[in-house]
Amino acid sequence: MSRVYNFCSGPAALPEAVLAKAQAELLDWHGKGVSVMEMSHRSDEFVSILVSAKARLARLMNIPDDYEIVFTQGGASASFAQIPANLTSGFDSACYLDTGAWSTKALKEASKYTNVIVSGSSKDVNYTTVPDFSSLVLDETAAYLHLTPNETIGGLEFDALPETDLPIVADLSSTILSRQVDVSKYGMIYAGAQKNVGPAGVVINIIRKDLLARSDNDSLPTVWSYENLAKNDSMINTPPTFAIYLADLVFEWLEGQGGVSAIEQINIEKAALLYGTIDNSTFYSNPIDVRYRSRMNVPFILADESLEKTFLAESEAAGLKTLAGHRSVGGMRASIYNAMPKAGVEALVDFMLAFEKRYG
């Protein structure tokens, strides 16, 4: 069977070159006679992979020296609890922006650990825009301000950060390495790997070192303490070794593409092509405020909703896979992460135009 264009929101498509290299090294990594999956995480071989992954990520994102890279397990959903458990010790509250499904889940988990201040919300407009930053309710004595700058389900993406002295904690699961970010503006960045980095199973955490001291190691589970994890190079217990290895291969691939600035330009072109097709049609529409449309996750609906099943069946038959919108919102959604080539978006656009011609 030939490869299809996979528009899944996560676990998402991986670069074919990465999959091919992993396949070639699956039984015998670098002449060692074993797979990465079989290596001791304490071995020199795996430690070299871990060192490489951290160094490549630091280069790609220009991570300053006063930040630590920590790999954790449990996905970003576990981080929703792990973050307040680590960062709110000694504080009475944490501020959260409510901009969609994932930020809502994050603040609900945080409320189990601290008083959550909903500093701004776009719930009243069905999460189709970003709250006005000038009207945010921020407690500058809070532990941090949490953001979800890209809402994967709704297709909403911030174009800036609020002005605040609070450490900004951001879930970049859907956008990490897809665009340039100034890491120094954040107290912490975290991201599940299964969208732009690699397979499910590992979370990347980029934490300003002064925040590590907030971890209350007397009350936290040992493997949940960011401070302990940093001191033990993410290896208090066995880390997800194969996921880290594949992340390193993706980082290597991204460096070969010219780095984040180069892939960002391609992502801009892909998104412009798809949104242009939607906007130039009365058959398709996108509900998000144009200023805040996501480059990575593009939802769209048909003027005639009764054609959705037909659209999904015919698109899959055409080799365009996983275009159904999230079950909570319906419609269609194309996730066009770094590994989605421009040719895949062009194929989707060609199909959309032909489908409109047939049924419009």
Automatic annotation (TrEMBL):
<keyword id="KW-0963">Cytoplasm</keyword>
<comment type="pathway">
    <text>Amino-acid biosynthesis; L-serine biosynthesis; L-serine from 3-phospho-D-glycerate: step 2/3.</text>
</comment>
<dbReference type="InterPro" id="IPR015422">
    <property type="entry name" value="PyrdxlP-dep_Trfase_small"/>
</dbReference>
<dbReference type="Pfam" id="PF00266">
    <property type="entry name" value="Aminotran_5"/>
</dbReference>
<dbReference type="GO" id="GO:0004648">
    <property type="term" value="F:O-phospho-L-serine:2-oxoglutarate aminotransferase activity"/>
</dbReference>
<protein>
    <recommendedName>
        <fullName>Phosphoserine aminotransferase</fullName>
        <ecNumber>2.6.1.52</ecNumber>
    </recommendedName>
</protein>
<dbReference type="InterPro" id="IPR000192">
    <property type="entry name" value="Aminotrans_V_dom"/>
</dbReference>
<feature type="binding site">
    <location>
        <position position="152"/>
    </location>
    <ligand>
        <name>pyridoxal 5'-phosphate</name>
    </ligand>
</feature>
<keyword id="KW-0808">Transferase</keyword>
<feature type="binding site">
    <location>
        <position position="194"/>
    </location>
    <ligand>
        <name>pyridoxal 5'-phosphate</name>
    </ligand>
</feature>
<keyword id="KW-0718">Serine biosynthesis</keyword>
<dbReference type="GO" id="GO:0030170">
    <property type="term" value="F:pyridoxal phosphate binding"/>
</dbReference>
<feature type="domain" description="Aminotransferase class V">
    <location>
        <begin position="4"/>
        <end position="348"/>
    </location>
</feature>
<feature type="binding site">
    <location>
        <position position="171"/>
    </location>
    <ligand>
        <name>pyridoxal 5'-phosphate</name>
    </ligand>
</feature>
<dbReference type="InterPro" id="IPR022278">
    <property type="entry name" value="Pser_aminoTfrase"/>
</dbReference>
<dbReference type="InterPro" id="IPR015424">
    <property type="entry name" value="PyrdxlP-dep_Trfase"/>
</dbReference>
<comment type="function">
    <text>Catalyzes the reversible conversion of 3-phosphohydroxypyruvate to phosphoserine and of 3-hydroxy-2-oxo-4-phosphonooxybutanoate to phosphohydroxythreonine.</text>
</comment>
<feature type="binding site">
    <location>
        <position position="9"/>
    </location>
    <ligand>
        <name>L-glutamate</name>
    </ligand>
</feature>
<keyword id="KW-0663">Pyridoxal phosphate</keyword>
<keyword id="KW-0664">Pyridoxine biosynthesis</keyword>
<feature type="modified residue" description="N6-(pyridoxal phosphate)lysine">
    <location>
        <position position="195"/>
    </location>
</feature>
<feature type="binding site">
    <location>
        <begin position="76"/>
        <end position="77"/>
    </location>
    <ligand>
        <name>pyridoxal 5'-phosphate</name>
    </ligand>
</feature>
<keyword id="KW-0028">Amino-acid biosynthesis</keyword>
<dbReference type="GO" id="GO:0005737">
    <property type="term" value="C:cytoplasm"/>
</dbReference>
<feature type="binding site">
    <location>
        <position position="102"/>
    </location>
    <ligand>
        <name>pyridoxal 5'-phosphate</name>
    </ligand>
</feature>
<dbReference type="GO" id="GO:0006564">
    <property type="term" value="P:L-serine biosynthetic process"/>
</dbReference>
<comment type="pathway">
    <text>Cofactor biosynthesis; pyridoxine 5'-phosphate biosynthesis; pyridoxine 5'-phosphate from D-erythrose 4-phosphate: step 3/5.</text>
</comment>
<comment type="subunit">
    <text>Homodimer.</text>
</comment>
<feature type="binding site">
    <location>
        <position position="42"/>
    </location>
    <ligand>
        <name>L-glutamate</name>
    </ligand>
</feature>
<dbReference type="GO" id="GO:0008615">
    <property type="term" value="P:pyridoxine biosynthetic process"/>
</dbReference>
<feature type="binding site">
    <location>
        <begin position="237"/>
        <end position="238"/>
    </location>
    <ligand>
        <name>pyridoxal 5'-phosphate</name>
    </ligand>
</feature>
<comment type="similarity">
    <text>Belongs to the class-V pyridoxal-phosphate-dependent aminotransferase family. SerC subfamily.</text>
</comment>
<dbReference type="InterPro" id="IPR015421">
    <property type="entry name" value="PyrdxlP-dep_Trfase_major"/>
</dbReference>
<keyword id="KW-0032">Aminotransferase</keyword>
